[in-house]
Amino acid sequence: MSFLHNKNILLGVTGGIAAYKSLTLVRRLKEQGANVQVVMTEAAQEFIRPLSFQALSGNTVHLSLLDPAAEAAMGHIELARWADLIVIAPATANSMARLANGEANDLLSTLCLASKAPLAIAPAMNQAMWANTATQENLQILQQRQVVILGPVAGEQACGDVGDGRMMEADEIVEKIQQLFSHQALSGVRVLVTAGPTREAIDPVRYLSNHSSGKMGYAVAQAALEAGASVELVSGPCALSADKRIRLYRIESAEDMLQAVHENLAQVDIFIAVAAVADYRPQQVAVQKIKKQAGSMSIELIRNPDILASVAALENKPFCVGFAAETEKLEQHARLKLQQKKLDMVVANRVDKSDSGFNSEYNSVTVIWDKGSKVFEKTTKSRLATDLIALIAGHFKQQKK
Ligand code: C5P
Prior knowledge:
By secondary structure, this protein is α/β, with parallel strands linked by helices. The chain has helices at about 20-30, 45, 50-55, 70-75, 75-80, 95-100, 105-115, 125-130, 135-145, 170-180, 215-225, 255-265, 305-310, 330-340, 380-400, and strands at about 10-15, 35-40, 85-90, 120-125, 150, 155, 160-165, 190-195, 200-205, 205-210, 230-235, 245-250, 270-275, 280, 300-305, 320-325, 345-350, 360-370, 370-380.
């Protein structure tokens, strides 16, 4: 189910050419199950007829603050209270200035002042107007007030200019709005995450390990926290620090990680194994530093326990998500892992791309579950983590039903 299901979205349309894109926005929001009420400024009505918004939203469009008939149907204070979110798209330079100034001389600005709902705006204007110091200062004021800014994006403009100022496309706006609502998607849920590499001791000074930086796992833990979960993080050695609200257990080896995970598994609802656990460890750990000798030497390796599989095999297992680093046949290998380890979801990423994956700020993945998959294009690990948590939360809730 979409995070927008039954959410009340008040869409403010101001007077810019991008207003036509807001018709698509209404359709997309409705498709996601949202209830949509549209408020248009006078200037917006010069671009699009209210009737179009009425037909798509299924509700009479709100046009005036001082219309007794409209006030009798749903007064502006009632409308302000009704909204779970106010979205202004397009938001012109003028509407941003009026918001920053706290004006209340038309219906939309009054609603913004009267509502306690979060406010998101999708600016759309000529690139020079966007770059103008006045607009940028207004933007800063709005950002300081926690207004969510969606775009604008760069490209060719209706006036022929090229630059920043195009309104974000409807699909992307819907995605962002979903993320806003997914924020508390894990409230009351306990999440355990593993992250980073493991170190498998050879002797007191040497070990086997890998290039995992821990960034993806820490980002997933943070995203779960921001989604309202209580989060525990079992981390192999890495240079990262975690949010104070995350309970962090630092461990060294795969065996330590196995123990820490099972000790903290009680009442865990979702287990997300992001750690790059070493598959093998030296059979013997030398008590003293191994001295070099003439000729070659060999170290006998034995298999490490599979932590994720051990959790997924439990009778009362949590919702289990694994990560799969693959260099080829991504989906095929990941799907096999899903079945073999009895997982609910697998996040597969190609680790042979130098600018993505291991030790990078970026990642692109395909998430796979028994009946489907979803591709997440290359983005920062932190943004990806937020999207992954939204997806995981959705599937987790569906399974619990
Ligand atoms: O089988 P493979 O190592 O590719 O599986 C990767 C997934 O399994 C990751 O989620 C990783 O954290 C987890 N894993 C584990 N314990 C191991 C090996 C992998 O939890 N010993």
